[in-house]
Amino acid sequence: MSDFKPNIRAFCCHYTSQQTCAEGPEGLKDDGFPESVSLFRVPCTGKIQVSALLQAFEDGADAVYVVGCPVDSCHNVKGSQRAAKRVGAVKQALSELDVEPERIEMFHLERGFHPEFVAVAQEMDKKIKKLGPSPLKGESA
Amino acid sequence: MIIAERKPLAEIVEMTKDHEKILVLGCRGCVTVCSAGGDREVELLASLLRLGAKKEGRTLEVREGSLVRQCDKEYIDSLDDWKNDYDAIVSMACGVGVNFIANLRPSTVVYPAVNTSFFGGSPEQGFWTEQCAGCGNCVLHLTGGLCPVARCAKSLMNGPCGGSQNGKCEIHKEVDCIWQMIHDRLEHLGRKEQMLEVAPIRDWRPAGHGGPRKAVRDDLSV
User: Fold this and answer.
1) Are B2 and B94 a contacting pair, CB within 8 Å?
2) Fewer CB within 10 A of the terminal residue: chain B, N end or C end?
3) A-to-B residue pairs, Cβ atoms closer than 8 angstroms
4) What residues of chain B score a pLDDT lower than 50?
5) What range does the domain containing B94 cover?
6) Can you tell me the distance from the alpha carbon of B121 to that of B182, in angstroms, rounded to the nearest whole number?
């Protein structure tokens, strides 16, 4: 599995990804942001529906994660709390499908530039490389 | 409204495993309001069924749709829009909807995707409680508007049983004794004497014990 290159989709809110994204792809790469992670910025993670997270898996993602504001200080009050609930719903759905629920995660990070934004991407990259391709891609059936 | 909950995915997968093209059909009535079988839930179930089939290496085409209601003939007729281009329907409506499809579409295979649970309301978002049993012989005018048929574990009609302790039911410490609530409410309304009236032995035939029920309104049919 050493040549496995994960396809990881990250949904990030405008606030947690703002300055990090301002660096551009090259800046992110220099910071150590894994190439396996594709960023999808949304105004607020509370706007992300469960269907969008599942669609990412249908589109071939090996893993998905959401980065939203800290639980108690979301710019939109409860947006990141809603996102966490929806991530939880997808975790449950993955379990029902007998797929590792850790293929989807929620992270609550402070807004602005901070190394944790890169760190969680590296964490997911490392974890999914270990887990291997998503069974939902049907490649192992 | 009718409260329903989606069945475990494995159960739905097992029902549909022999089909290659299914129509996941939502209902925009009660099950939309209780987030069990509306457009959004159709989208989710369809996605999960596709993912599950792909994981198992099965071919499964999932079509998605919703009817205004699945409990009226005129809306069931609009199933024609899908031109029978499916092997089976997975209905996300309550049991009434599944029955109506079965009644009106003799050649259509139909499966239930939800468990129809009860008649209830939502005191807060994401939380529903049973309020009515549909027993066909309403006594709410005698009980302060609180239903002992649906909300008493024993459906008692003349006050609480011995299991009522500190206002709670013996079946669970979180369940209020409805007869305690009826007493307190009638007292608050200054109508406690209503409790002295002895309820007669109840005729349970209108509650379904006399077979399937029906309602007829001649003034509405031509």
Assistant:
1) yes
2) C
3) 43
4) none
5) 2-118
6) 18
Of A62, A11, A20, A58, nearest to A39 by C-alpha is A11
Q: What is the CATH T-level fold of the domain A8-131, as seen in this structure?
A: Rossmann fold (3.40.50)
For testing contact with chain A, the best of B24, B49, B55, B58 (most A CBs within 10 A): B55
* Partner-chain contact A141 B56, CB within 8 Å: yes
pTM for the whole structure: 0.93
**Which residue in the set A49, A54, A97 is minimally distant from B55, CB to CB?**
A97
Would you give the DSSP letter of residue A41? E
Q: Provide the chain B residues 44-103 that lie in CB contact (below 8 A) with chain A.
A: 44, 47-48, 50-52, 54-58
Residues in a beta bridge with A105: A65
Would you call A54 and B40 a contact, using CB atoms and an 8 Å cutoff? Answer: no
Residue A106 is predicted with a pLDDT of 98
Spans of all domains in chain A: 8-131
pLDDT digits (tens, 9 = 90+) for A37-79: 999 999 999 999 999 999 999 999 999 999 999 999 999 999 9
